[in-house]
Amino acid sequence: MSISAALSSKNFSVLPAEVVLENVSKTFGRGNRAVNVLADITLTVAKGEIVVLLGPSGCGKSTLLRLIAGLETKTSGQVKVDGHEVTGIDARTSVVFQEPRLLPWRSIRKNIELGTRGEDHSAEIDALISAVGLAGFENHLPRQVSGGMAQRAALARALSGFPGVLLLDEPFAALDALTRLQMQDLLLEVAAAAGSTVILVTHDIDEALHLADRVVVLGERGSGIAEIVEVNQARPRDRSHPALAPLRTELLSRFGIHP
Known about the structure:
Layout: H1 3-8, E1 19-28, E2 35-45, E3 50-54, H2 61-69, E4 76-81, E5 84-85, E6 93-96, H3 108-113, H4 122-131, H5 147-159, E7 165-169, H6 177-194, E8 197-201, H7 205-211, E9 214-218, E10 225-230, H8 244-254
Parallel strand pairs: 3-8, 3-9, 6-7, 7-8
Antiparallel strand pairs: 1-2, 1-4, 4-5, 9-10
């Protein structure tokens, strides 16, 4: 069964949410120990859009993601999800981290169910387990499955709460090259079938070009958005499509790499 068929065959529906950042800044610490991580970030992510955040280490990509999720508090500006300001941990968003963060004593299914916040969504959990390719492994413990399978479970857990916004912080960085490519395609299929707005952090330019509607490039720490690159290629995309080559060259050049 295809992913779209698996999800549409159950009562699985997501209302994608718009994300609006208005002059958002974030500083850690005070006085001479203050570190300005983000400055004057203004960005709107449309409902159902996939936006990838790209930039040098320490530029605030993960911090920006945490501000949207309500895991950090902004220093100034406004963060809005679906028109409502984010003032704390926000149920309209779900986060997938670089490591799966599964509870080792709970089965794969029980870990996925954590995203439902105690509500009974058995049919939807079945659909998600099927959609991410974990059917037959739902009763395994995390130590009994591969890293790629554990990250599939983390993705399913994030989706089980029907988030309007799916936030991913370098979710495939720890995976081997082949599994990473497979997970990229899985994310695209699941995101299209579920309908969530997606914001993803990565250091991988090829990953950004394969996934994004827009690539938002952040400048050095304490600065703002340096550039926004539109990726006007329909999905599914051919990773070697010649139209992506100039975009890759442009992004590499921004980081001082000249292919």
